[in-house]
Write a structure and sequence with these properties.
Blueprint (H helix, E strand, L loop, with lengths): L3 E4 L4 E4 L3 H13 L3 H11 L5 E3 L4 H4 L3 H13 L3 E6 L2 E6 L1 H11 L9
Antiparallel strand pairs: 1-2, 3-5, 4-5
Length: 115
């Protein structure tokens, strides 16, 4: 994402999200709009090893295995996680670059975070 300036009638606006990027970002934000998916991603991203086996997400989320698998599929399709099959299990990792894109869209200028 590159920042673009737009001349308004009263000021110059900085547009951190280009129109072409908005659709992809919306897909990711839509994926995170479900509380279970937000929790799943949070669990995956916060692990010291950086990865979680799908089987280990069922109990913490309190949903059935097929439901957890569905949520993982949505996160994968939104580009928020990657997956690797090991034997009969699938291991998931958060995609740091994708999470950074979401952070930038919400707070493009860390200097303004303290304001």
């Amino acid at each position: 994402m590159t920042k673009k300036t737009i001349q308004g009638c009263c000021s110059v606006l900085v547009a951190p999200v280009e129109e072409r990027d908005a659709e992809g970002l919306c897909l990711a934000f839509k994926a995170l709009s479900d509380p279970a998916r937000l929790r799943v991603l949070s669990l995956i991203a916060s692990q010291p090893t950086g990865e979680v086996c799908a089987c280990d997400l069922v109990a913490p989320i309190g949903k059935s295995q097929p439901t957890v698998s569905h949520h993982l599929k949505v996160l994968f399709e939104a580009g928020l996680v990657t997956k690797e099959k090991r034997g009969s299990w699938i291991w998931y990792r958060a995609v740091p670059e994708r999470l950074a894109e979401l952070r930038t869209a919400l707070d493009p200028s860390p200097a303004f975070a303290a304001v």
